[in-house]
Specification:
By secondary structure, this protein is of the alpha+beta class. The protein is about 20% helix and about 30% strand. Strand 2 and strand 3 form a beta hairpin.
């Protein structure tokens, strides 16, 4: 039964620029007007911190960061029924993610989405308050919690 599938352990990265705007990318496999922050799975024998750095570089080519905060709680989302059994080779029902807030300290010219396993087709900086409005519906709860984290982080 699909509802008995385990959760995939992953990481998510809130990348801030010097103006506290948040990096979001438009996914290659979902090019409608939905955006998300970099995220991905944790490999076997990999720490969440190491996975965060690897995923960020794999998806955006960003290497130059300052880690500002590791969000204490793991955040979860479940896949909608139409994606259950299709994403991640059908092995998981959703993701349990450890999120990090980082500051991008490099030059924007270093950001390159044309990576070996390209996930994003375009990117932009947005105000953190827009995060729940730009994400696919099934991740909205996670992004609302991240908006609250950022609000307390900025105040």
């Amino acid at each position: 039964m699909l509802s008995k599938l385990p959760m995939r352990h992953g990481v998510g990265i809130i990348v801030l620029n010097q103006h506290n705007k948040v990096f979001v990318g438009k996914r290659k496999d979902n090019p409608i007007d939905k955006w998300q922050m970099p995220q991905g799975g944790i490999d076997e024998n990999e720490t969440p911190f190491d996975a965060m750095r690897r995923e960020l570089e794999e998806e955006t080519s960003i290497k130059k960061i300052e880690v500002l905060k590791e969000i204490e709680n793991w955040l979860e989302y479940e896949l909608p029924p139409n994606l259950l059994g299709k994403i991640w080779k059908g092995k998981y029902r959703g993701q349990k993610q450890k999120w990090f807030i980082v500051r991008f300290t490099g030059n924007e010219s270093e950001i390159n989405l044309r990576t070996e396993h390209q996930e994003f087709i375009e990117w932009k900086w947005i105000d953190y308050k827009l995060l729940p409005k730009v994400i696919v519906n099934f991740k909205k709860d996670v992004y609302e919690k991240l908006e609250i984290e950022l609000k307390s982080f900025f105040n």
